[in-house]
Amino acid sequence: MWATGGDPILAYGGLWEGSFGRVASISETLVWATPYILAGLAVGLAFRGGLFNIGAEGQLSVGALVSAWVGFGVSGVPWPLHLLVALAAGALAGAAWAGFAGLLKARTGAHEVITTIMLNYVALLGTGYLLSGLLKDPSPFVVVAQTPKVLESARIPPLVADLRVHWGLIIALALSVGCWWLLFRGTVGFAIRTVGLNSSAARYAGISVGGTVTLTMALSGLLAGLAGAIEVLGVNYYHTPGFSAGYGFDSIAVALLGKSHPLGVIPAAILFGALRAGATRMQFVSQIPIDIISVVQGIILLLVAAEELVRRLYRIGGRPTSTTEGIVAKGWGRAQ
User: Is the terminal CB of the chain with fewer CB neighbours within 10 Å at N or C?
Assistant: First the structure.
């Protein structure tokens, strides 16, 4: 911040004021944090299964488009049934998008990093094409590429009157608890973690590695697709290219910061949400470019990734004793 000629104290004061200084600021932080929680859960769940789902951005976009289409294209269905159908449609679209990458890995050995990156391009460019043509708002007053607004019956209501924070936050928190139960109390979660740690041991124990890989990617995509659906149905009420502020890519950092733990993702997402919510206020009071927030996020990620290096440099004890906490993804190879 000094390098940009600004006052760091003034900047951080503005950042705090814009993220937690007022009730409206806290609301904005939670609005930003909601998709981060769900997308972070998506990436973290894949990490636990030994997979690197780098395609959350594409799954999020597909989920948002499908939920918007159901939201404005289906009429005569009362709330909340219409809302539930729209949310389910977006989640299932994300699950199908990511599940395809998981199926490719299970059947052909195609690495999920490559396939999900390619599917990102297909999703972002494909949805952009549909938003400019078939699904574009036909109103002559709308010149940008976007869908019509979703009907009132498909919208997520606000959590508090006169604030933008909505019930999608409660859904995200509930799913965090659900993912924790699934991973650490359920048999499906046990299979996911076992395959993530050692696929050979999992196969020896009778676990279907290929089926678990496909299921893990599908569940990961379901969460990412739901993040897009909630963003459309609870905040924007329409889908347009560039609606995501990089939630899918930032969610990798959120998942790493939360140690890929479903409950650890929550404070990490709130931190990233606070940085995003307070960035505008920080720029207003200190004239420091808003892009400095991306630099701060990068520094946070570096410190997390360099945890072991810091421990060695300063000879800090308490080195992790289990390799399970540090696993991110398995190496290149074929899932069997």
Answer: C
